[in-house]
Structures are given as C-alpha cells and as structure tokens.
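so the lab meeting is tmrw and i was supposed to have these ready like two days ago... anyway. pasting both below. for each one the top line is the aa sequence and the line under it is the structure tokens. i havent really looked at them closely yet so no promises
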Amino acid sequence: MIKLEFTTDIEATREKVWKTLWDDSTYRQWTSVFGEGSYAVSDWKEGSKILFISPAGDGMFSTIAKCTPNEYMSFKHLGEMKGGVEQPPDEKKEQWTGSMENYTLTQRDTGTKLTVEIDVTDEYASYFKDAFPKALAKVKSISEN
C-alpha cells in the first residue's frame, strides 16, 4: 500500500469547499471523473457507514472514521459492493481493506487549501495519479463559481 497526496488551492471559503465536496449534487459532479453517475449514500456522520456506488450498485462500503465539519473528513474503506450487495473478503480485496482516504481543508488568506491523502495498492496508483487531479480541478471550478 502506498500513500498518495493531492492538493489544490481554491478561491473559496472552507464552508463552500466542504459543501462542494459532500452535498449530493456537487459530489456527483466532481466524482464523475471516477465513474459517471457515481454517488454516495450516508448520513455523513462520524462513525457511520458510507457507500460509494455506481448506478449499477458497484463500488465500496466504508466508514466515516473522522468528521470535523469544514475541516477534515476521513474514510476507512472496508470492502467492495457488486450489484448493491457487500461482497465477502477475498485475497485481492484484503490488500486494500482498511485503506484510508482523508480530506483536509486549510483556511488561507485568499481561500482554502484542499489536501487529499489516499492509500492505494500499486495496481491502482497510476489511475489515481491521473484521475484525482482532474477531480480536484472540478471541485475547484464548482467551489469558485
């Protein structure tokens, strides 16, 4: 498992960036980079389960490890979903089970610095190195408009 980090400076308040990240309509916009129509199902409270899924019901199930509104969100990924059903663990999935995905919003004089840290397997590192900057560019665009 390797940790990747991505950052972007956004000319908007932390509150606006937070809303862009986690409100359903804008979440769907920026995560379309990872899969058209993808969305999340959660109450967005610390300790709660969250599903990151496609329209076909494929994706991941996770928990919200930490949530400090307008500052920090942390997900602990637990397993895979297929057709809306949580899949039992297997050797391949266990390689990334427990991986973390963290979002930190830092107030700056002229806006917000958004930092994302994700744990990935070597197999998916190049995919995320390509996709995450595109997703953060969408977060930036939405937040600044």
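ok protien two:
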Amino acid sequence: MTFEPLRFAGRTGQAAETFAEDHLAIMTQRRSVRAFSSDPVPESIVLNCVRVACSAPSGANGQPWHFVVVSDPATKTEIRKAAEEEERAFYDHRASDAWLDALSPLGTDANKPFLEAAPYLIAVFQERTRKADGGGTAKHYYPMESVGIATGMLISALHQSGLACLTHTPSPMKFLQKILHRPKTERPFLLLVVGYPAADAEVPVIERRPFSEVVSQI
C-alpha cells in the first residue's frame, strides 16, 4: 500500500456556510417520483452520477457494488413484467394489513408503468465476494453498508443534476439477476428509476420528522 498527499480543495469560512445552506435548500426539494417523462436524458449525465457512486467509501476499499444502467426498451419491458408479478403477490397476500395501511396514503399498487416510461433504470447489485489478489475469492467487509452509502451518493448526484428518481424494491428481486445476466456472487440491492418528472407529476404531501427529534448534539 502506497500513500499520496490529499488533494481535497475544501471550502472554508463564509463560502462553506453559503454552500451548506444552498445544498440544504436543493436537497430538501428531493422527492420520490412515480410519474416520469419519456424525454431523453443525456447518457453522460447518468454515467457521471454513477461515477460519483463508485467513489463512495467502502469497507477495506472492497467496493462491493455493480451498477447496471438500462436504457434498452425491451429490457425495461421485461423488468416491468417480472417486477409487477412480484408486486401482485405482495399486494395480494405477502404484505401484512399494517404494511398495506402504511402504503395506502401513497396510493401505490402493483402497476408500475414508470419502469417503462422512464428513460433509465439503474439496477444496483451487492457483491458477496470479490476476486482476491493472486486468485481465489476474498470476503467483503460491511458490503450492505457500503452499497447503501454508494446508492445514497448516486441519488444525491442524480437530484443535483436535475433528474428525478425512485427507489424501487420489489421483493424478491432475483429476476434482476436473471434478466441482467449477473453472476451468483451478486445479489440485487435495489432498482433506481431515473429521468425527468412528467409535466403533471404529483407527490404526496408529507412531513419530515422534526430535526430535534432525529438529531442529538453532545
């Protein structure tokens, strides 16, 4: 292992205060969207956002992730069919009454047209093991936490690039492994629906928990 000087050009003073305030204003506008426009999105924007995700910290720098960027219409249709099959089973008999009651205000159901309407789907996979130096396999450390951090950075990058997204987690998601030809050493983590929001997109009126309730200062 070799080391090099840190090249982080951080902000200080008033510039940092202003940036933090501006960033707060931008990120608190982020909402999960279920109505997407079919307007094309430059591929370079999406790929650069994925590059941001790939820069995330990870346990022992294992980088236990794989991102599949899907824009092919036929593949999106196949994913929608498989996802809706799992969703119907969820709404019909897998979900508890309490879970369905919690989802009721959001107006969700087993129909997922956004999986075809949005120009991009990004399937996030978590690697279970990795190739070891010198051959064989090596263990990943904190893989779920690492992939979760990378996904959060991806969502933030997409939002700041002017795109809307939706975290979609049909359960189980093994169909993604099959459709996207991913190896058994990976497991689906979640599916991100990405694009511009539809002109008539609406989101539920919700409230965030009070800051003082979720944050402690010591």
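from a quick look at the 2nd one: The mean pLDDT is 94. Helices lie at 13-27, 43-54, 73-94, 97-103, 114-117, 143-160, 174-179, 211-214. will dig more after coffe
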